[in-house]
Amino acid sequence: MSAYIIRGGNYLNGEIRIGGAKNSVLPIMAASILNLSTTVLLDCPCISDVDISVEILRRLGCKVWRDGCRAEIDSSMINNFEIPLELMNKMRSSFIFLGAMLAVGGKAVCGYPGGCELGARPIDLHMKAFRKLGVHIKEHGGYISCDSSNFKACKVALDFPSVGATENIMLLACKQKGTTTIVNAAREPEINDLQDFLNLMGAKVSGAGSSKITIEGVASLSPAEKRIMPDRIVASTIMFAASTTGGNITLQNVNCSHLDSVILLLRDCGADIYTHSDSLDIICPRRLKSTDVLQTMPYPGFPTDAQSQAVAAFATMKGTSIVKETIFENRFNHASELKKMGANITIGDRLAVVRGVPRLTGAHVYSPDLRGGAALVIAALGAEGTSVVDNIHYVDRGYDKLENMFSELGGDIKREDLYE
Ligand code: EPZ
Question: From 170, 224, 250, 413, which residue has the greatest number of CB atoms within 10 Å?
């Protein structure tokens, strides 16, 4: 198992290019089976969740070639529409393949999705929408068997703007006869990226970014090449790190409009942030002042995927913050690890009260999940002394060599294999 050894205290200065977004490339990789042809993806991040998606694509009979951040997928030979349990429970977004497999094969079998322990993470919204669209679903012995031969395009309303459910319906409906409309759709930028990719293949999807998405089914789709949108959560992570260590960083390849809520928050805390067409400069003193209340919300609200990083930054800002996590019921697992470093955090029901202390102290801490691990790295970079951030396989799920990014910016961080 690998861990990061981090000696805190260095300012972070310099320039870094943000890569493609995990939460965009994963649904797009699932969508690549729809054209029964070739797909080329640029800025495809080298992260373990992508590795799992490649394994799933190969299990379905697709060919996949990777060359750095370029991926090529040939789905012309797809011959299997069942994802084995051991692959399903490796990550949550394996469930996005269900809609695509049904769209191509008419039948599909998969298990329940795995993923980080952020809460129950049910799939009821996906299933309710699929049943409304005429999909026959049988749940038995840990498997979910679906048959879309009686698919009937119609209007489906989501009880909650679920990102995954929105994506699954888009993939299911884009090659089915008729017009399907999603009401109360998720509005995250990754949905726009998926719509762009589908339409590049010849689909007729519109409305992404709004809460109403219309999918006009087409008979077939064509080869496509797509550059994955920049990862707004990786960009947010670097920004919260700068606010913890102090520094002056230029982020290249960012879409600043995706970062509005994070930019506004950090400006309120005293950071100077300058936005440009595809880059952003952030300049921070050693210690900012925290905001009173922060609440995670569906986009364009503050992203739940940046909440852990914000809590880590608030831990050493001046003042007290109340952070409310409204999306997941169990997303403060990083708090107990931050407290080992001297953070003053009290956890309530879906909320954290963070009383800023002048400095944290290095400790041996354990990543509880993907973004919680990133939060511990941020805390360690600003702490007094040396930290060990363990279980960084979680971090590798969504960050392409995070240690390289922070080293390039002047952070003292190394990856080591601590145990056999
Ligand atoms: C996507 O997960 C992201 N993952 C998550 O990022 C992100 O936190 C989340 O959207 C919210 O923005 C990917 O895109 C691969 P949801 P998803 O369906 O689709 C509940 C990261 O760190 N819900 O919008 O699983 C659910 O339990 C990851 O990169 C139901 O109740 O999120 C949660 O409380 C973590 N029933 C809320 O909705 C359902 O059927 C939001 O879930 C589906 C979801």
Answer: 170
